Amino acid sequence: RRDRVRRRWQVAGAAVVAACLTLVVGASVTAWRDSGAGRPPAAMASMWPAHPDQPGPVTAEVALVEGTGGVTVWMHCAYQRGTDYHEPWTFRLYAYGRDGRSEEVGSWVAGPGDDLVVDGHTRFTKEDLARVELVRGDGTALLVYTP
Q1: What SS3 class is residue 119?
Q2: I need a surface site. Which of 6, 85, 87, 121 has the fewest CB within 10 A?
């Protein structure tokens, strides 16, 4: 009988501890989510066609956030539906420094109707960053942003 009572108390204690841990983890995740971590900034700037005489089916907005070791580049990109472009494209986002060097910040595939937010990090600081370009998989520059 004593063993059954002790075992019930152990099970009840373990259940209370598990419930408390669940509450703490849930509150931490909610606080992290509400802090804005993992979400793009509210203020974003439009990217402009790299070749104004040849606009493509893609529009984008970009934001640069200075951080440790460089800049986080946020981009909201929309691939328009109902254009002459019907196939998905591979896209690449490049950061170009004032020294002429570049690096790929991210890549993805999108097709008609897709609307997405991508982010990447570059070693360039805001001072060193000359421009950000959205490039199609074949190397064609589509959109550009100069800070």
Answers
A1: strand
A2: 87
